[in-house]
Amino acid sequence: MNLPNKLTLARFVLTVAFLVAMFLQFHYHETVAVALFSFASLTDYFDGKIARRDNLITNFGVLMDPLADKILICSAFIAFVGLGWMAAWMVVVIVARELAITGLRLLAASKQQVLAAEGYGKHKTISQIVAIIAVLVAHSYREWGDVGRAIFGFNLFGAPWVEWFVPLAIWVAVTLTFVSGWLYLWRNRQLYLEDL
Predict the structure, then answer these.
(1) What pTM did the predictor assign?
(2) Which fold has domain 3-193?
(3) What sign does the dihedral 41-43-46-49 (CA atoms) show?
C-alpha cells in the first residue's frame, strides 16, 4: 500500500478518534479534538499532493480519498449539532450537498463519465475546515492558559474575537456549500435530466 493510501486510511482512524475525543469528557478532550481534526485535515492535503507528485494515483485513492474527506467533515458538523454548538438545518444543508454531489458522481460513473472537482468545491472544503477548527478552538482555547487567552481571547468588537469569528466562519461555509452544490448540479444537469 502506498503512502497516499495509508494517509487516506489514517483519516478514517483519526475521524473515529476525533469523535471519541468530542464526546468523552476527559481532561482537555476539546483540545485533543482540535489536534486530531487538524492532523486529519493535513492528511487530506498531503495524500493528494504526494499522489500527484509521485504518480501514485490508484483506484482505491480515487474512491476512498473523497469519501474519507466527507466522513471527516460531516462527522464534525453532526457532532456539533449533538453538542448544541450548531443549528441542525445548517448541517442538513452541508450533508445534503455532499450526498447529492456523491450521487451525481456515481450517476456519471455509471455512464463512463468522470466529473472533475471545481474551484468552488475546493473553496467550500477550505471554508468548512476553517469553520470546524474555529468552533473547536472557541470551545477549547481557555484550556490553553494565558497563551490561548492571549491569542484567541482578546476582545474585538466587545467580545473575544474567536467567538464572533465562529458564526461568520459557519455562515461562509454553509453559503459556499450551498452555492457550490447548486452550481455543480446545474452545470451537470444533463446527466440526470436525460434520465427523468
Answers:
(1) 0.91
(2) Four Helix Bundle (Hemerythrin (Met), subunit A) (1.20.120)
(3) negative
- For the stretch 94-140, pLDDT in tens is 999 999 988 888 888 788 887 766 777 889 999 999 999 999 999 99
What pLDDT is recorded for position 48?
81
- Whole-angstrom distance, CA of residue 104 vs CA of residue 114: 10
Sign of CA dihedral 14, 65, 128, 177: negative
- Rounded Cα distance, 62 and 85, in Å: 33
